[in-house]
Amino acid sequence: MPTEAPDTGAVAAERGAAPGALTATAGIAALVYGLSNAATTPDGVSHWGDTKVVAALTAAAVLLTAFAVIETRSRYALLPMRLLRSRDRSGAFLISLCIGTAILGMFFFLTVFIQEVWGYSALRTGVAYLPYVPVILVMTVVAQRGVSRIGARPLLIAGSALAAGGMFWLSRITEHSTYGQGRRARVPRPGRRAADPGLPPRAGDRVLPGLPGRGRHPGPGGDHRAGRHPGHAPGPVRHRPDVRTGR
Fold first, then answer.
1. How do residues 102-155 score in pLDDT, each as one tens digit?
2. Contact 213/205 with Cβ under 8 angstroms?
3. Which residues contact 173 (CB under 8 A, 6 or more apart)?
4. Cβ atoms < 10 Å from Cβ of 71
5. Is position 171 within any domain?
6. CB half-sphere exposure, 144, CA atoms < 13 A
7. Positions of the chain with pLDDT lower than 50, given as ranges
């Protein structure tokens, strides 16, 4: 029964790429392990000097250096060094690395903020991210068409500037912001002094303890409306005396 002979070229390529794949995988794993264990624990103790952290980071440096050496000498390199000879390609790789790292970190911390501070559920948080999808798809098509017309360099610069500006805008979100409004400054307005715990009391004001949640206890002689004002954290409620009764 005839059998097909194995492709010697493919077998040689797989064997030649194996050392680079092993060193790269082990190096990244050691780096992630070291950084994860070096984080400061809730009790305020830093673990950068721990033996396992130092050993993991040292192993990561050695393995990734070995990967670079292997790739420069291997005939079947996973990352041929000739790809980095082009300045445009090298710049694109570097910008992709920096922007990708920043965006992934932004999504992680933004998700934690939305769920822990704003109180969104996991499903509601996912729905809140849906507007990103059509924007990414549209800009991908625009970038593909723009490369053939104006080149890659202007798009790299413009895209990096837009991404940096967007992340800076997101960094201005506070616990008083809302999903639709983004960041909103707390500007005192007439009629809202009693509900703003950030303003100092005036002479004759009576400070009442605020209750966390939806309601507030009305003060004596006043008709304070129950309910938390949007954009204001729970705090002490200041009641102005009634000018008619003096209380």
1. 888 888 999 999 999 999 999 999 999 999 889 889 988 988 888 888 887 888
2. no
3. 113, 182, 183
4. 19
5. yes
6. 6
7. 1, 183-233, 243
pTM over 0.90: no
Answer positive or negative: Cα dihedral of 115, 120, 121, 122: negative
Position 3 in a domain: no
The residue to which tokens 């059509």 are assigned:
134
Q: Does 179 lie in the same domain as 93?
A: yes
Residue 246: CB atoms within 10 A of its CB come to 8
The two structure tokens encoding residue 58: 């040292």
Cα angle, residue 22 at apex, residues 16 and 28 outer, rounded to 5°: 140
Q: How confident is the model at residue 42, as a pLDDT?
A: 80
Domain that holds residue 181: 86-185
Distance, in Å, from the CA atom of 110 to the CA atom of 116, rounded to the nearest integer, reads 10
Task: Look at residues 211, 196, 200, 208 and name the one whose alpha carbon lies nearest to residue 239.
Answer: 208
Q: What integer pLDDT is reported at residue 60 of this predicted model?
A: 96
Please state, in angstroms and rounded to a whole number, the distance separating the CA atoms of residues 247 and 206: 9
